[in-house]
Request: fold
Amino acid sequence: MIRFNSVTKRYADGGVAVDSLDLVIDSGEITVLVGPSGCGKTTTLRMINRMVEPTSGHILLDGRDVTQIKPTELRRGIGYVIQQAGLFPNYTVLDNIATVPRLLGKTRRAARRQALELLGKVGLDPALAGRYPAQLSGGQQQRVGVARAIAADPPVLLMDEPFSAVDPVVRQQLQRDLLQLQADLHKTIVFVTHDIDEAITLGDRIAVMRNGGRLAQLAAPAELLSRPADTFVAGFVGRDRGYRALGFASAGHLPLHDEAVLRIGEPRGAARDRGQDGWVLVVQDALPLGWLRTTALDDAADDPVTPEMLNLGGTLADESGTLREALDAALSAPSGRGVVVHEDGTFAGTVTASEVLARIESRAAHLREQATR
Amino acid sequence: MTALWDYLRDNHAEIQSWAVTTLWLSLLPLLAGLALALPAGWLAARHAWTRDTLLALSGALYTIPSLVLFLVLPELLGTRILSAVNVGVALTIYVFALLVRTITDALTAVPSELLAAATAIGHSNLQRLWAVQLPVATPVIAAGLRVAAVSNVSLISVASIIGVSQLGQLFTLGESTETLTPIVLGLIFFVVLAFLYDGAILALTRVLTPWRKAARP
Reply:
């Protein structure tokens, strides 16, 4: 556990980066510090490993005041990941990862062996071990950065906007992988970002900070969306709060409808017989591929159905997913019938938007009832 | 061409001893100057005031004309006026003066985020210098060293004016006897020596920084 006791950081020019901050960061959780630039979130993070020293107040790491621990010793016990990874260009991937174990006195051989195991853990090909950082993509560099941070198995991990320099697709993948890694490792992670969506995706708890280094709200993502503490938080959390909050509500057992599906390669003629309201779902090995418009088919009834003919607009909802996923699947399907899949990706059934909305309504009524009780 | 060979054969004993002196006069000051400039440059790169002081000092040192230095040093060091030690010390001063600025700039140019990352994962200042800062600064330092090595070689020949025995003697000899052969031979020796240093430092840099080659696609 990391505890901030009325911590203030004031710079020589009088500017206040962090103002009497009280914050408790629980062990084994991801706590995200989020806020506009200049709100003191990075300063807060850096005070934990003494990269920045507080002007007043105390920071306790598992009960020990961090200022009582020698900086190098403290930092070797805390993983650290920054934007663009901060990898050493003169070290190979393997030696970058092996850095902290080496600093802690491990032999080069032992440290490298350990580093090699970590490559797989962060989703990197062991063949990259001998490469230099300049030879890697941005996403790969970030993975090496994460591997380096966890190499000495520190209980605490500090991450300072680690994913902000990569493109959205890679960022989403890195976020997913971090959550998977965390499910395995249960580190105490303090994650700084200016991106509220990233905060909501990753955080077990989110600390929203405002200019002048003050804590505006500390809450779980669902609560932050449904009950922002003030207008600043409400504005920062942004639009679509109601819709995004559905991303934290389990869809439960939705009333699924069966569909007469068409397998890819089957003759087009069959589509007309199985279609419903002008659309038929096309699958391959039971995996949904897309929707086929039966009214637009030409006369070549014996020709097979090909992937090029499909409408790919619909998203897929997981059977055990959230209300947001289910509603999105229904709204995005050209047929109006949202596709729900089993855990292995195979087709489970379809659900309509009104059915999902009914579920949302009854859930909201239930919550209102609870609140008034 | 044959005149050169004949001259070389006739005077090979003398030329050989001059060559030995020239070699160590070009090598030792380079190494000594680098060894002195590294800590000075490191110090200069750490604080604004050390930087200003050291760079002013090295600038002043470099403006002293070499001939003056060759003549003043015996007084200061208590060496004989014709001793090669004077030349060695003078050249060391020039190498030092040239390299302090290069090394300061090279160390300062290492990205601060990279240094912060090294500190944040637990390097002490010295570990950080050794593991990250120096290696990343090596290409720039090496470029400065190449300049220093070549300027060093050309300065050695000046020492022949004060009569220190080394290959520069070929020039004064040629002038006094009004023959071209020793002058041409001397030119060839110095040009070859300058190229050798340049190539050797370049090759050494490549070996020390394999990661730079990797960075090029």
